[in-house]
Design goal:
The protein has 181 residues and is mainly alpha-helical. The chain contains ten helices and no strands. Helix 6 (97-112) runs antiparallel to helix 7.
Length: 181
Amino acid sequence: MGAVENAASCARDSVETSRRPAPAPETGRDDDLVSKAAAIAASKPVVAPRNGAEFERAYRREMKAAASTTSASRRAEILILVPPDKMETMFAGGLDPDILADVATIALEHWYAKDENASAALEWLERLRAVPRFAVSAALRPSASSRALERAFAAARATAARDARATARLEALREAFRVLA
């Protein structure tokens, strides 16, 4: 076999091997790593954010964590650490639509749902309306977030059914967040 034929044969072999499908990645090992990383992240204490960038970084990290009750409760802890009177300055740059929707959902599901914190959660959400670009972020939230927020408002209204003042406050918030009835 000559040099040209040998080169052609090698090229053919190379093309044939590149057409073979790559073996499927092992997911078991990746799942273990993700689980371990989530466990490590969950073991770290929640720290009060000093500014909007720290809030968003910590909140997004928890949003990306496995969709578990631990992640949701940690997001609620982050919200509780932000004093209502500091919200306008902390969120001077506004909140991204996906974060705004998730913040409201978490506040209603994991903060308002606990009767002893209901008034504080409503005050927090009412103060959130004063954040710059609130109306724009509320209008541009992702559709999946909209459905979750609708369910959270429905559950909160059911919880507040006997309290006319809380029901009126929730209705005003529902309108502000542009959630359909």
